[in-house]
Design goal:
Distance between the termini: 32 Å
CATH class of the largest domain: Alpha Beta
Structural class: alpha/beta
Oligomer: single chain
CATH superfamily of the largest domain: Nucleotide-binding domain of ferredoxin-NADP reductase (FNR) module
Shape: globular
Largest sheet: 6 strands, antiparallel
Mean pLDDT: 96
Strand content: 15-25%
Strand order of the largest sheet: 6-3-10-1-2-7
Order of helices and strands: EEEHEEHHHHHEEEEHEEHEHHEHHEHHE
Low-confidence stretches: none
Number of helices: 14
CATH architecture of the largest domain: 3-Layer(aba) Sandwich
Number of domains: 3
Radius of gyration: 24 Å
């Protein structure tokens, strides 16, 4: 599959590049509250092109143990033949569940079927009513498909009937943490392995544990393609535009790519990185790289926030406020602010901090600060990759 203009292959969800992980290692130290890992994916043999700010789409597979437990709850052997959700093939249901079904999320079609099959004698009864939206969300939190099957043993399914109640297992997008100028035949990812316990069962993120636990470096084939970003881009290297990068946790990923790119292109504008995590001893990802960038001038400033290294919790927004005068000076010099990471809390808190800085250092009223920020966004100087 190729473009008529370039003749190069076009990789996408229907035609992914089949890659292998050439290297993987822990970024978090012993005793860290969560496991965060660095992956280097081999692009040899493909012509994938990416730019810092892009994401890599990874097609994972489900945990075979969870699939087997789900089959047991259904009363199936796993050999029953069903239609593959993503192809025209007919395959054993075990294969279909491993490759193509999102058994870690619950579709309303499954809830509806269970309500019907139990004659409404279920805790799910009534939860699909529009006014019960929040109640349903709360009930489903931390539950997988297997939980509903075990909680409703009288709801019996035929294999193909069950498949029609399931969501498809789709790609996962991860911010790329490398520059192709620094690594021409590789793409790097920075991923926290999702693990938690709920309703008495250990839970795992599908894609993060697929990479951390179910691949063999140099062997396992992984379908991937580049998802090109649009607004999350560096200024041209020859420009003097300052950049402020705010990326706690795995939000650091695109900024590692930015810094590799800036070094490779000898970018002229000054750069300031804000990074935060739980503690310095176990969670200072890429410490040596970032300190080397400070030493060689690629980074003008590196500011860190360790939330549990002292009695009071300190996050990146607190460090922004601590440096308010200098932040405002950079803004007045035309700086672009980049934010990557958690949308629900961190990005909201960073936004509030920026408003406070503009009010305080610019001597503005709250309304004037809002107007300043609106103009800042309109000028595309406030770029966010939050999720």
């Amino acid at each position: 599959m190729s473009t008529p203009e370039s003749g190069k292959p076009v990789y996408n969800v229907k035609n992914p590049f089949i890659a292998k992980v050439k290297k993987a290692y822990d970024l978090s130290g012993a005793g860290a509250p969560k496991n965060t890992r660095h992956y280097e994916i081999d692009l040899e043999g493909g012509e994938l092109e990416y730019t810092p700010g892009d994401s890599l789409a990874v097609q994972p597979t489900n945990d075979p143990v969870l699939v087997d437990d789900t089959l047991k709850a259904l009363g199936f052997t796993g050999d029953e033949i069903v239609k593959h959700p993503k192809t025209t093939l007919e395959v054993p249901i075990r294969q279909a569940l491993i490759e193509a079904t999102l058994i870690t999320e619950i579709d309303n079609k499954l809830i509806k079927a269970i309500i019907e099959k139990t004659g409404g004698n279920t805790a799910l009864a009534g939860l699909l009513e529009p006014e019960k939206k929040e109640e349903l969300k709360k009930y489903l939190w931390g539950r997988f498909v297997i939980d509903l099957l075990l909680e409703n043993p009288t709801a019996k399914f035929e294999p193909q009937e069950f498949m029609l109640t399931q969501k498809k297992l789709n790609i996962r997008l991860y911010s790329i943490s490398s520059s192709q100028k620094a690594h021409p035949k590789e793409v790097h990812l920075t991923i926290a392995t999702v693990k938690y316990t709920s309703h008495g069962r250990e839970r795992s993120g599908v894609a993060s544990t697929f990479l951390a636990e179910r691949i063999t470096v140099g062997e396992t084939l992984i379908p991937v393609f580049v998802n090109h970003g649009k607004g999350f881009r560096l200024p041209e290297p020859q420009e003097e535009t300052p950049v402020i990068m705010i990326g706690p946790g795995t939000g650091i990923a695109p900024f590692r790519a930015f810094l590799e790119e800036r070094k490779a292109t000898a970018a002229r504008g000054k750069a300031w990185l804000f990074f935060g995590e739980v503690n310095e001893a176990t969670c200072f990802f890429y410490k040596d790289e970032f300190e080397a960038y400070v030493a060689d001038g690629t980074l003008a400033k590196l500011t860190t926030a360790w939330s549990r290294d002292q009695a009071e919790k300190i996050y990146v927004q607190h460090k922004l406020l601590e440096n308010s005068a200098e932040i405002y000076a950079w803004l007045e010099q035309g700086a672009i602010v980049y934010v990557c990471g958690d949308a629900s809390r961190m990005a909201v808190d960073v936004d509030k901090a920026l408003h406070s800085i503009i009010e305080k250092e610019g001597g503005k009223t709250p309304e004037e600060a809002v107007a300043y920020m609106a103009a800042f966004k309109d000028a595309k100087r406030y770029r966010r990759d939050v999720y």
